[in-house]
Amino acid sequence: MNNPNSGRPVAGRPSEPLPEPSVIPTNGWHCGHYFYRFRRDRIDGRLPQGLREQFRQSLHPEGSAAPERLASYWTSGHRADFCVMVMDPDPGKVDGVHQAIMAPGLGSVIEPEWSFVSMSEVSEYVPTIERFRERLLAGGADPDSPEVKAKVAAYERRLPMMNEQRLRPEIPDWPAACFYPMNKSRVVGANWFSEPFSRRNSMMAEHAQSGIAFAGKVSQVITVGVGLDDWEWLVTLWARNPEYLREIVYKMRFDEASAKYAEFGPFYVGYKGTSDDILSHCRLD
Question: Mean pLDDT across the stretch 125-152?
């Protein structure tokens, strides 16, 4: 049968050729956060040597199976024993770590507790160089002052590095981390998505300013789950000390972007460790 549209323009067809279909994002990486419990009712005292080695290999993959970023943590509380954060351009490598953990043998003594699938991004609220300058002037700075010029020049130098950390973050070798999903509210009177961009941008600027006070103490990456998971974002915070996690989350709850518009899911706190560290903490070594 002849195509009725053959030889005629198709409504909605883009004027530019589309890129080839691919699972690799054009910007950012895939990200997976996976949380697990050991099935102690199926373990007699300690994890058998063969499963110990399988566990080690799943958390420390080598060669072509190794993702660009992987960090493992033992976790506090009853909901999970350990968690793994994985990032890579290829979603197969990210989920491959989870599949290795759940593979026959090891998978019989481990059960998944929760996961979050997301991608890294540069938020629309990250100020451009011009918007950064406008913020300085809105704060009363003299547009012709050397101070403004110096701050704008410094921001222009830092911006590419900051965006690189947002898209392909280095995971700091710090002992404590917490992970939590969040949405922006849609309730009557506090619908984030009905606010104009200028208003949302102003609130996020205030939010960012609160975080600056923790530079050198806390590092973060926010990955987006919109269209990929139940929540809209997953916040990962790494800290030099767990007390900084408590302090930064408490302080930022008072910002309007959080106090009025944020909805939070479960919080998980973890402490960085190898497969042996996790087994030792869980009394399975």
Answer: 86
Residue of 117, 98, 96 lying closest to 107 (CA atoms): 98
Q: Are strands 82-88 and 30-38 parallel, antiparallel or unpaired?
A: antiparallel
Tell me the catalytic residues.
Answer: 180
What pTM was computed for the model? 0.89
**CATH for 30-120+272-281?**
3.30.70.1030
DSSP, collapsed to helix, strand or coil, labels residue 179 as: strand
The reported pLDDT for the residue numbered 124 is: 92
Of 113, 129, 106, nearest to 43 by C-alpha is 106
Q: d(Cα 242, Cα 175) in Å, to the nearest integer?
A: 8
Q: How far is CA 218 from CA 59, 200, 254, 259, in A?
A: 24, 24, 18, 21
Q: List, for residues 3-17, the tens digit of each pLDDT value.
A: 544 455 455 666 778
Name the average pLDDT for the chain: 93
